[in-house]
Amino acid sequence: MGRRTQVIDVREAQVSSSLPGLEQELRRAFKHHQLDLDYQPIVRATDGLSTGVEALLRWTHPLRGPIATIDVVGIAEDSGLITGIGAWVLQRACTDHEQWNADHPGIPMTMAVNVSARRLLGPAFVTTVADVLVATGMAPDDLVMEMTEGIFIGDADRALTVLRDLKGLGVRLALDDFGTGYCSLTYLRQFPVDIVKIDQAFTRSIDHESAGAAIVAAITHLAHVLDLTVIAEGDENTAQRNGITDVGCDAAQGFFFARPMPAPAVRAMLRASDGHQLHLPDHLGSQAPVAVNHADPWPG
Ligand code: G
Ligand code: MN
Hints:
By secondary structure, the chain is α/β, with parallel strands linked by helices. It contains twelve helices and ten strands. Helices cover 45% and strands 19% of the residues.
């Protein structure tokens, strides 16, 4: 029994018991354009230069404050709102990407968008992606679709068909939260995935457990044998940054490098860059210690 299955069950139980009535409010928030996206930079491990961003869905409830993304996605999936919200996320992320690309054509940047298993395997998903690519004019290989190993639970043949269709469009595929699902290794080999994102728990274990660095090294080595790019998620300090660099991870995404930021902050970052490469506001070249507030108001 895969752990991922249990995680989904727990989440749905939490949504129904601790977030009653939020479905109508989410419906209203979506209708009134109160959902937003933050973008978190992904940086090259060797030099800390940003190569792209991941779009993260944000809903700030007027009374409850920030609602965890995993809960928003759970409510949206259970209520059927996920189709509309998911399409909006994709459209908005690609539109922002194209705007940034038009303003700063010399700075290459990928855009990663999360897609839940239910939506990816649901009807018309590939058509939606194709439509958005055409509507925004985005280069398909600038778009990365992030999914968890949850897509392989159930009808793995159907998952394979959808992933092949997406690859046919030219988009790139990333396995998110890698290592927390089940049967990961089989799927890594069989499915047309381009990128592996090592789960935050493994990255954090680098300086917490003696086996931590070995696990991250093993995933990285395996991914490289399979010709995949490796991103370590959740890097929060120098020891973890050094750890992931030492074992040869290609890229990193964590508070140590940059927090998720709203679109205007990305634009400011682009303006402050040198026209060819995207520099983070707290670029590592400065060697200044980066203060990390571990509290994340936007878990999951
Ligand atoms: O599962 P996924 O990779 O899509 O989740 C990304 C989430 O992880 C976002 O909500 C983001 O705010 C959070 N996150 C990103 N980097 C860090 C980090 O360094 N530490 C912590 N605690 N959370 C992070
Ligand atoms: Mn993700």
